[in-house]
Amino acid sequence: MSSRDSLTVLAASTPPADLPGLDPAYSHLVTVPGVGIDEGSSRTWHYLDNSAELAEHDATPAGTILAVHGNPTWSYLWRALVSQTDDDRPWRVVAVDQLEMGFSERTGLHRTLAQRVDDLSAFTAELGLTGPIVTLGHDWGGVISLGWACRHRAELAGVSLLNTAVHQPEDVPIPAPLRLAGARGVVATATSKTSTFLDVTLSLAHPPLSPDVAAAYRAPYRQTARRQGIEGFVEDIPATAHHESRATLDAIADQVTRLDVPALLLWGPRDPIFSDRYLGDLIERMPHARVHRFEEAGHLLAEDVDYGPAILDWLAESIDAEPAEPAEAASQDAVAAHPDFTPLWSRLDEHSDDSSLAVTDMTTSGEPLRVSWRQLSTRVRQLASGLHRIGVRSGSRVSLLVQPGPTLTAAIYACLRIGAVVVVADAGLGVRGLSRAIRGARPDVVIGDARALSAARVFGWPGQRISTATLPRLSASAFGVTHTLSDLFEAGNVERLPDEPTANDVAAVLFTSGSTGPAKGVVYTHAQLSAMRDVVAAHFDVTPETGLVTGFAPFALLGPALGTRSVTPDMDISSPRTLTAVAVAAAVRASNARIVFLSPASILNVVATAGALTPDDRAALETVRTFLSTGAPISERLLASAAELMPNATPHTPYGMTECLLVTDVTLDGIRVVRDADDRGVCVGTPLGDNRVLISCLDSAGDATGEASAAPGVLGEILISAPHLKQRYDRLWLTDRRATRDVPPAGRWHRTGDIGHLDAEGRLWVEGRVQHTIVTGDGPVAPVGPEQDLERIAEVRRAAVVGIGPDGLRQAVAVIETMRGTRAPRFVGLDLAARVRASTTLPLVAVLEVQRLPTDIRHNSKIDRSRLSAWAERMLAGNRLVAP
After folding, report:
1. Contact present, 738 and 724 (Cβ < 8 Å)
2. Binning pLDDT at 50, 70 and 90, where does residue 260 land?
3. According to DSSP H, which parts of 182-227 are helical?
4. Contact at 8 Å (CB) between 538 and 562?
5. Which of 37-41, 68-72, 178-182 has the lowest mean pLDDT?
6. Are 765 and 681 in contact (CB under 8 A)?
7. In terms of domains, do 779 and 831 share one?
């Protein structure tokens, strides 16, 4: 006899009154006329409902959130949302316990997906729920909630989902944990006879559930008879094409594509069951959905993060707000906003018959690799055609795991030409950070060398695999390689290219450095990338004769867009500290370049290795007319040291970020003009072109809550607006929302997370990061000013000032690198400590010395003050002095 034949009938009940976080007043029972297999019977449901509380407060709900749990949870999953509705626009929350689950009735019957959708419809009919209704589902409750949504379009106002799936490809096995649980001979033991399935599910929380919360989830499932619904749910997973619920699942998946209501997808990437593959499928079916990936969360996202505010913010923005303008009208307005748009590849088309040098790569062993304009233009068109022939289309995402050089240049411009979205994540993120970025972006295609493709296989990165080189047959097979770039070049037909993308189509997803948290994908349109090119060209007077040396990865690809030759010097482009002065000179000499792009970390090493320059090297550097330090603010002393190597060049140190690569600019002379000013921080100059900068002042708690203003001398968060500002963050809706500030009448501005002030002449001074502000008992203190005080001491090479102690009463600690150096962290001697303290007006409770201050992993230049603060706290608490 199968377990289905021995299902137990048990009555519904209300939960115990002492479950943590659940007010018993929310619990209700309702008897619902049976449908389908229950026809002629009545079934009792347990559900949570906050309507009585809303009535007590005379609050009229804006609508109803219908929340549906999955397997093996119950309505307890939604307890935070039931009690957390917005006071201004409250929503009724009805969270069900599905039949056979939670504290609802055990009917003794096996329920299929179709039956569960029927059940839910009968439940809402009995409660008399009317629109507007927003569904909310998790796990298999997501599919059931979508099935209900597709059936009740008249009442439906929106759909929201936590980790779930609506489609299972026939050629892809279901997730391993579900395969194991559902295996013949195992399913009953794993799900009902023991609590294994429940225990494993609860173990997926990040951080682990507290014992009392875990016990609350177990409360309705303490006996075998009460766990039979868990078994039934697992048996109903449509793992094969012939499963009894497969047709229903496929129908729901198809119907979802026609839902035109607002949608929200909240996702926990650390989910061994519903991976990012399922998120990608949902995005394809609902491309209009708001998407946010909580990097720290997993399968039990509702336990891992405070998801309630995200739901309520989305409701306020998408459901409660006035209807948005029609998409067609918005598109027409956007096109009108870019009447002079010329795409990045336009210069390549103009130079298609030019045999002069376009790109030189000196990072290769042996002779530099040189490519002419004609060769590059032809290769781009060939590759674009080849990619299109294998199915890469407008909107397809292509992850490029290729070292900067002619190959990467051709691949990027080929992708842009056919409207594919370029995904660029720096190898400097490290394997873990890189993997997280690629999984989050979920590319359709990965182009890389053997090392990158090996990592793609090991870490399960998505996407069709294309190798930059021909690999041995066994390696190609092991890596899943379907094509090589050579194949695509040969297959490409330069006369057969698809229509060009428009100015407002998405062009690229560029990942941030990860220096202020997990790397974020920054979405750019073609218009925004072209606007960035135009700002660079206009401000630095770039002409076809200029020539560029690009020792900073983000600018290594600009030459073709600007229509001028470029060269990448001999270095590891992902490690700026590997660039030497001799390599810069050789690159200038090889390309006759007049502009040099460097990062602060590379300048440090260029200056340090200047002693190896020959007279010929120095003569080459004397021909440079402009050099830029980009990536982080740089001290006057370091900029001046580099200027001595290029004496005829105007040194610039622009301020920018991945979200807006160039915001302001200042020259060395400009810095010297303000040397004796009373302003604190690093002067980064005035906004370029049509860029604008405002400041939102800090309150006493160090939060940027003040009005956006251009008033001089106000310390606060830096807000920026520019034609080449990002469109949004990729699949990080909440992050994008928090980083956006509406400033009437100018509209949306980007919150940079940097703090600083404007002076009376409109120059911007950067003084640190918002999260690095030291909130003392006397108010917030920015770190950069005191750090500059310390760096004026001859023995101090670099300094960081960080806070320790409780919020609002933080104490300042100085952590320094000295010219002499130290092998191990230590407290500095009394004499140096006294001079350090005397150099600044900020009281310092300790002065520590380290061999090297920790920096971000991409530029090797931005000091990781958060890491230093935690380290200093440990050290001053008496822990052993180990390196930060």
Report:
1. no
2. very high
3. 187-188, 196-202, 211-218
4. no
5. 178-182
6. yes
7. yes
Taking the C-alpha atoms of residue 421 and residue 790, their distance in angstroms, rounded to an integer, is: 45
Q: Percent of the chain, pLDDT > 90?
A: 75
pLDDT tens column, 615-653: 999 999 999 999 998 877 677 888 999 999 999 999 999
* Total number of residues shown for the chain: 884
**What is the reported pTM?**
0.90
Taking only the tens place, the pLDDT of each residue in 25-46 is: 999 999 999 999 999 999 999 9
Residues 790, 665, single domain; the answer is no
Peptide bond into 72 cis (omega under 30): yes
**Is residue 263 domain-shared with residue 135, that is, in the same domain?**
yes
CA-angle at 609, arms to 603 and 615, nearest 5°: 110
Is residue 884 domain-resident?
Answer: no
> Within this chain, do residues 727 and 820 fall inside the same structural domain, yes or no?
no
Burial environment of residue 64 by CB neighbours within 10 A (0 to 12, 13 to 18, 19 or more) = buried
Average pLDDT of the residues in 290-318: 95
Sign (positive or negative) of CA dihedral 640, 642, 644, 650: negative
Helix (H/G/I), strand (E/B), else coil: 218: helix
How many distinct structural domains can be found in the chain?
Answer: 5
Residue 745 lies inside a defined structural domain of this protein? yes
CA distance 291 to 260: 16
Nearest residue to 122 (alpha-carbon basis) of 99, 156, 91, 141: 99
Secondary structure of residue 629 in the 3-state scheme: strand
In a domain, 534, yes or no: no
Task: Tell me 207's DSSP state.
Answer: S
3-state secondary structure 519-584: CCEEEEEHHHHHHHHHHHHHHCCCCCCCCEEECCHHHCCHHHHHCCCEEECCCCCCCHHHCCHHHH
| 534 CB neighbour count, 10 Å cutoff | 18
Alpha-carbon distance of 561 to 749, in angstroms, equals: 27
Q: What mean pLDDT value characterizes the chain? A: 91
Sheet of strand 421-424: strand arrangement = 481-484, 464-467, 445-448, 397-401, 421-424, 506-511, 521-525, 728-729
408 & 499 share domain: yes
- Check if the beta carbon of residue 76 is closer than 8 Å to that of residue 70: no
Mean pLDDT of 518-539: 94
Neighbours of 143 (CB within 10 A): 27
Check residue 338 and give its pLDDT.
67
**Three-state DSSP class for residue 166:** coil
Distance of alpha carbon 230 from alpha carbon 762, whole angstroms: 65
pLDDT at 515: 65
CATH code for position 648: 3.40.50.980
Concatenated DSSP letters of 703-737: -EEEEEE--TT--EEEEEE-TTS-SEETTBHHHHH
Specify whether the CB–CB gap between 632 and 862 falls below 8 A. yes
Q: Are 788 and 680 in contact (CB under 8 A)?
A: yes
- Is 142 in the same domain as 267? yes
Q: State the amino acid at position 409 in one-letter form.
A: T
C-alpha span between 342 and 269 (Å, rounded):
38
Instruction: Judge whether 613 lies within some domain.
Output: yes
Q: What is the mean pLDDT of residues 290-311?
A: 96
Instruction: Look at the block and give the residue holding tokens 């619902």.
Output: 32
Together in a domain, 440 and 567? no
**Domain containing 698: what range?**
660-772
CATH number, domain of 797, equals: 3.30.300.30
Q: Which helix (H) or strand (E) holds 490?
A: helix 485-491
Handedness of CA 699, 704, 707, 711 (dihedral sign): positive
pLDDT at res. 516:
66
b/e map of 380-416 (b: 16 or more CB within 10 Å)? bbbbbbbbbeeebebebbbbbbbbbbbbbbbbbbbbb
Q: How far is it, in rounded angstroms, from Cα 308 to Cα 797?
A: 47
CB 455 within 8 A of CB 480: no
